[in-house]
Every structure is written in C-alpha cells, then in structure tokens.
Amino acid sequence: MGIANGLPAGFNPDVYDAIIVGAGYAGAVCARRLAEACGMKVAVIERRDHIGGNAYDYVDDAGILVHKYGPHIYHTMNGRVNQYLSRFTEWTGYQHKVLANIHGTLMPVPFNHTSLKLAFGDERGEALYQKLVATFGENKKVPIMELREKNDPELSEVADYVYENVFLHYTMKQWGKTPDQIDPSITGRVPVFVGDDDRYFPTAKYQGMPAEGYTKLFENMLNHDLVSVFLGVDVRDILKVGTSNVLVCGRPYGGEIVYSGPLDELFGLDLGALPYRTLDMQFETLPVDQFQPVGTVNYTTSEDFTRITEFKNMTGQVAPGRTTIMREYSKAYVPESGQTPYYAILEDENLKLYRRYRERVAGILNFHCVGRLAEYRYYDMDGVVASALNLSDELIQAHN
To answer: Which residues form the UDP-galactopyranose mutase C-terminal domain (predicted)?
Structure first.
C-alpha cells in the first residue's frame, strides 16, 4: 500500500481499474477485495488526513488510545464479517457494558434484574422481576410496548419507569425532539431484559476490540501492492457525475467507482441537504487510574451531554495515574461546516429526498454506492462490512 497526502501532479485515473471514495470500512473492504480477487489496481481517495473512517483511533498526548469519532465497539452475529476482519487483526475479549446514571444511581442498560432492584428496592424489585419471569420467561428482551399490552399495573409501572428514566430524556437530547415528536413505534421497541446478563450485546456471538487498535486493522487491510491511498483529497475536485457517465479529471472514466460518501454533497446539495445529527465530542484527560466503572455511562435524566466514554475501560490499556474520557453532545448537522454527519434522520420525507439523489446515479453502471453515508442509513460496523462484502461479491463476479 502506498499512502500519499494529496494527489500527485498529473494524477492519471486511467492507470487505475477502480477508484474508491472513502477509506473507512466500506471503501477499505472493497479496495482489498478488488485488488486481491481481480488483480485490479485501485486508487482510494479520502478527504480526511487519515484512513479508518469514523473508526479511526490514535494515541493522545497523555499516551491513551482514544477513538476520535466516538466509541466503536465491535460486535456481530455475522460469521462471514468476523472471519474477514479477523484476517487483519487479533481481538481482545472485551464485552461491552453500559450503565445509565439515573438520578445519581448507576443501573445496567438494557434495564435488567439488577436495574429493577436498584430502581424499586430489593424486595419490590425482586417481586417485579419474578412477575416478568412468570410472564415472559428468562433471558428474553421484552419491548415496553409488550409490557403495556398485558394490562397489568405492575408491568405497566416497569414500562413507565424505563420510558421516563432510560429512554425519554436521553432520546430528546440525542435527537433534539420533544416528547410528542418521538415516534411511538420507536418508544415501543425500548427493551427490558429479563435476566442477569448485563452485557450491552448479550446475543452477539463475536465481540471484542482490535488488539492493536482500529487504525492498525485498516493499515493491514489496505496493505496491498495494488492499492494506493490518497489522503486529504476532496473527490468533488476531480470527479463529476453526468447523466450517463462519470468524469474523472475531466475525462470519462471506464473503471469501477465505489462511492461511500454523502450523495447530496456530491451533487452540491442542489435538491436540498439530507438531515443528520452530529456530535460535539469533548475529550478530557484526568489524573486518576479510572473515572467510571465501565466503558460507557449514559446520562439519561441529567446533564446536557448524552454519555461519557472512558477508553481504557474498553481497550484494556494500562496507564497508571491517567485516563482520558469523552463527553458527547448531540446537535443538528450543518452541511459543509466541517462537522461529521453521524446519524441519518430516517423520516419519510428525508428518505424520499435520498431516493431522488440515488436515482441520478442509478443508470451509471460503473458507479456503486455503499456504506452509511452513500446509502443514507444507520449501520453498525459489521453492517457496513457486510454491505461492502456483498457489493464486492457482485463486482468480482462481473470481472472474473
């Protein structure tokens, strides 16, 4: 792999069989597979000054490995995704746990047996738990809508507590909505876990953190003789989408183009901007061994921020006498502002707008959209990888 800052003078796209926009999971997976399976010479164009997309991590001034764009917790049930990524990293045994700070008391999330006793007291909490077990069985995730549908006042009391103290205020902060604007269908899916497992992803077969960090995983994935990476390049400066083809450096490009960026920005927002939520992340290094007992604490009933992440609790890094934490403040995304679009706002009007952008490239046979931004959807990391594997399957089949 060659990594260069900026495009070389006289960059010739005709040298490359494929141009891939974005060096995150979507782009890196496609780049590696096209180079490896098809012998394609691939150029990866990345606007940022680093590879890894939002999963990028680095060592801060205090010597702590931190995730620049918020905590990334690897978990999946997808065996193919796990097998593919495991080619490029070893994994730690990390199991993610989340606590909610509810009026000063830390309770496991999803709300479970322990949470019930902390919220309602040992005796009453145990009684409510036994009723949940008798009604639904153990080790089950039960949406609060199901609790309400039983028309049982005690089960409704549990549902109301979880709604008010775990979901409502946190969601208002996260999405910038008032209670009446929150979709009831989302409310109804908020789960209670009938059991003692306090892992955040209790059903994920594969969990952990990359042993040497995410950036090293990407370095390994992109390390191929046929892959060249160009950082700090805004692809809009070299790529123009027409009605039936794509121009690169002013000439029609006949190779494959894999695009993982935002479609609306590629077209200059001329139909309007696709709405997102973004995050203001504030890092702080503290002179203590440990700030909080788990990797993530959600502040569901207090504070302006949504959660605090402590990275050492996730990576297992040993750094006596210092730790770095990060507070997250959610806010509306402003296009072309340098902010990062994190969460697509998947409402009908926005999806219709996305489809109008997508229709513009539907007839261009060598232009392929993949990933969270290009597909305008929410993906966990494994979902992005699965989508990229599927797309690259199609391209490999077409070229072999």
So the answer is: 166-378
Tell me which amino acid residue 200 is: Y
Burial class (CB in 10 A: 0-12, 13-18, 19+), 352: exposed
CA angle 207, 212, 215 (to 5 degrees): 95
Query: Residue ranges of the domains in the chain?
Result: 2-92+211-273+338-399, 110-194
The C-alpha atoms of residue 247 and residue 237 are separated, in whole angstroms, by: 11
Class of CATH domain 2-92+211-273+338-399: alpha beta
pLDDT in tens, the chain (400 residues): 688 888 888 789 999 999 999 999 999 999 999 999 999 999 999 999 999 999 999 999 999 999 999 999 999 999 999 999 999 999 999 999 999 999 999 999 999 999 999 999 999 999 999 999 999 999 999 998 899 889 899 999 999 999 999 999 999 999 998 877 877 766 766 889 999 999 999 889 999 999 999 999 999 999 999 999 999 999 999 999 988 899 999 999 999 999 999 999 999 999 999 999 999 999 999 999 999 999 999 999 999 999 999 999 999 999 999 999 999 999 999 998 889 999 999 999 999 999 999 999 999 999 999 999 999 999 999 999 999 999 999 999 999 8
For residues 87 and 201, the answer to whether their CB atoms sit within 8 Å is no
Kindly list the distances between the CA atom of residue 325 and the CA atoms of 25, 103, 135, 383, in Å, as whole numbers in the listed order: 25, 21, 40, 27
355 CB contacts (<8 Å, ≥6 apart)? none
Q: What is the DSSP letter of 382?
A: H
CA angle 377, 87, 341 (to 5 degrees): 25
Q: Cα(281)–Cα(314) distance, rounded to whole angstroms?
A: 17
Q: State how far the alpha carbon of 73 is from the alpha carbons of 77, 97, 314, 372, 381, in Å.
A: 13, 10, 8, 16, 8
Q: What distance in Å separates the CA atoms of residue 152 and residue 161, rounded to the nearest whole number?
A: 14
Q: Virtual CA dihedral for 370, 372, 375, 378, nearest 10 degrees?
A: 140
Contacts of 169 (CB under 8 A, 6+ apart): 300, 301
